[in-house]
Specification:
By secondary structure, this protein is of the alpha/beta class. The chain is built from ten helices and nine strands. The chain starts with a strand and ends in a 6-residue tail after the last helix.
């Protein structure tokens, strides 16, 4: 079972559920493709007023499906295709969505989960939710575009902690950082999300879409003036970003995780 992304609509609300039971909804390659396809199709649905993104079984998403990694991660071209086309294609399709995106976050929101949540407009979490990207334990860095996305949402200090310390931050800290819009007791999470999506759906849908277009345009202007510089500079950064694919450190990190042992870097 490679997991699935369920898209369930009742007219003006679409519920997107990340689901891979037994693996805390870790994102498989098939799930990334489903996420992209589903969000691309949303553009044709003028009736939608809110999209709710959630995880199955008490967790948002615990990262990528590492069980698949040995199939493609050690070849630079295949690794580049995975991040630049499959993963970023799905994340970009979410970022391009003009419908308000609401994230209901419980349990683990790690790695890929953090990236997916970073694409959402309003994020609501239960107090026991956990956030991070401890991929240094696996021997590889975060892809440039994905890091740019996370950096823009969690801030430089938290991003450095997550990547350089492999720190996992709690929900109160993420609220303090401004990543979360609301923090509630776990037992009240669904009720709070329900009330929020009802408020969103009662508002003017055209205004919401126009606001999202404007926010996206203004964010692009800010990004162009930021540390990543021009689009050409980012392209140059991406060009060599996956040369580590066949490195011993990368192989050791993945092998240790699969074998359930501590890596020897």
């Amino acid at each position: 079972m490679a997991g699935e992304i369920r898209f369930e609509s009742n007219g003006t609300l679409l519920v997107v559920t990340l689901s891979q039971p037994g693996r805390f909804n870790a994102m498989s390659r098939a799930m990334w493709q489903q996420l992209r396809s589903g969000f691309e199709q949303l553009r044709q649905d003028a009736a939608l007023r809110c999209v709710l993104v959630r995880g199955d079984g008490g967790h948002f998403c615990a990262g990528g499906d590492i069980a698949e990694y040995t199939e493609f991660r050690f070849d630079p071209d295949r690794l580049r295709d995975f991040h630049e086309n499959l993963v970023w294609g799905a994340l970009q399709s979410m970022r391009d969505c003009e419908i308000p995106l609401l994230a209901e976050i419980d349990g683990n929101c790690i790695g890929a989960g953090l990236e997916i949540a970073s694409c959402c407009d309003i994020r609501i979490a239960g107090v026991s939710a956990r956030f991070g990207a401890p991929i240094a334990r696996l021997g590889f860095p975060m892809a440039p575009r994905e890091l740019g996305l996370v950096l823009s949402q969690v801030g430089a200090t938290a991003a450095r902690q997550m990547l350089l310390e492999a720190a996992v931050l709690d929900a109160p800290r993420m609220l303090q950082l401004g990543f979360l819009g609301h923090l509630v007791e776990d037992a009240g999470l669904q009720a709070h999300v329900q009330a929020t999506q009802l408020r969103i759906r009662a508002l003017a849908p055209q205004a919401a879409r126009m606001n999202k277009r404007t926010i996206r345009a203004l964010s692009a202007i800010t990004e162009m003036a930021g540390s990543l510089g021009t689009a050409d500079a980012l392209a140059a950064l991406v060009a060599g970003a996956y040369d580590y694919a066949d490195s011993g450190e990368h192989r050791e990190g993945i092998a240790a995780f699969v074998a359930k042992r501590k890596p020897a870097f």
